[in-house]
Amino acid sequence: MIIARSLEELQSAVDAIKAGGKTVGFVPTMGALHDGHLGLMKLAASKADVVSVSIYVNPTQFAPNEDFDSYPRDVDGDLAKLQTVGVGLVYLPRTEDMYPNGTEITVKAGRAAQGLESDFRPHFFDGVATVVHRLFMQMRPDVAVFGEKDYQQLQVIKEMTEAENLTIEIIGGETARDAEGLALSSRNAYLFGTEIASARILNRVLRDVATVNENERAATIENGIRKLKDAGFDKIDYLTIKPEWDRVLVAAWLGKTRLIDNMALSA
Ligand code: PAF
User: CATH no. for residue 241?
Assistant: First the structure.
C-alpha cells in the first residue's frame, strides 16, 4: 500500500498507475474508518484495478461552531484497516495541498444542495463540493464511491461531476448498519450509554415511514417525530420525504450529536 503524504507524492503514484494502464477507484473519506467505509472500498475494488482512499478532515465543510476540532482522528488505526481490504494507494493531504491559496475560492454546490442539510448547515455542501472537486483533480479517478448514508451529499457530488463534465463514474454504496439497524457513522463514536439504544430508534422510524401507503405518510411522520422525542432526541432538524429521490430522510440531535440517515420508500 502506497501512502502519499503530499500532492507531489500523490502525483507520482497516480502517474505510475496510469502508465501501467490501470483504472483507479477512489473513496474520499474523513478517516475514523468503520465497516461502512471498508464496504465502500470493496465496492470500489469491484469497479476498478486499484483502490485509492483519501483521509482528510476538510475544514471548509464545518461551521465555526461545529465539531472540526473534536472530529475523531485515528490515522494509524485507519491505515491498519485499509491494509485489510486491499487498498493500493492512500492520500493524506496537508491543508496546503488542498487549499494552497486559502479557502476563498470555492465550488458552489448546485440544486441538489437546496433544503434539508443546507437549511441547518448552509456552508456544508459548498465545502464538500470544493474539496471533492479538488480531490478529483488530484487523484484523477475513473470511478468514485460515496456512501448513501449521506444521500444528499451523493446527489450534490453527482450533479457537480456532471456540471463540470468530469468523466468520473459516481457510485453510491448502500448504508452499512449494525445488527439493530443503526447506520454506521464516525460520529457514532460520540454516543455513550443509553444514547446508542436511542439512536437505533432512528432507523425504525425511517422504516415506518418508508413502508406505509402514501396517504398515511404525513401521520406516520408526525408519529415518528413523537417517537424520537420520547426516545430522548432533543431536536429533530427534519424527518421528511423527498419525492424526487424516492427517499425519506432524517437529521436529529441526541445530546450534542447530530445523526443523519435515510431510506428508500418501499410502499
Ligand atoms: O462524506 C465524507 O466523509 C466527506 O463529506 C467527504 C466526501 C470525504 C468530503 O470531505
Answer: 3.30.1300.10
Tell me how far the alpha carbon of residue 49 lies from the centroid of ligand 1, in angstroms.
23
Pocket test for ligand 1, best of 34, 71, 121, 150 (most atoms within 8 A of CB): 150
Q: How large is the angle between the packed helices 217-230 and 201-211, nearest 10 degrees?
A: 170
**Residue 179 falls inside a structural domain:** no
**In the listed set 127, 142, 173, which residue is the last one of a domain according to the structure?**
173
Task: Kindly report the protein residue whose alpha carbon is nearest to atom 3 of ligand 1.
Answer: 29
Number of compact structural domains in the chain: 2
Q: Which of 77, 56, 73, 53 is nearest to 145 (CA)?
A: 53
In the reported structure, the alpha carbon of residue 130 is separated from the centroid of ligand 1 by a whole-number distance in angstroms of: 11
Distance in Å, CA 210 to ligand 1 centroid: 26
Please give the number of the atom of ligand 1 that sits closest to the Cα of 56: 10
Are 67 and 139 found together in one domain?
yes
Per run of 10 residues, the mean pLDDT along the chain (length 267 residues) is 98 98 98 98 98 98 96 97 97 98 96 98 98 98 98 98 98 97 96 94 98 97 98 97 98 96 95
Instruction: Clarify whether residues 75 and 33 are in a common domain.
Output: yes
Last residue of a domain, which of 173, 200, 217? 173
Question: How crowded is residue 188: how many other Cβ atoms within 10 Å of its Cβ?
Answer: 19
Residues near ligand 1 with C-beta < 6 Å? 28-30, 58, 61, 128, 131-132, 150, 153
What b/e readout covers 79-94, taking b as 16+ CB neighbours within 10 angstroms?
Answer: bebbeebebbbbbbbe
Specify the pTM: 0.97
Which DSSP category does 177 fall into? B
The domain of 92 spans: 2-173
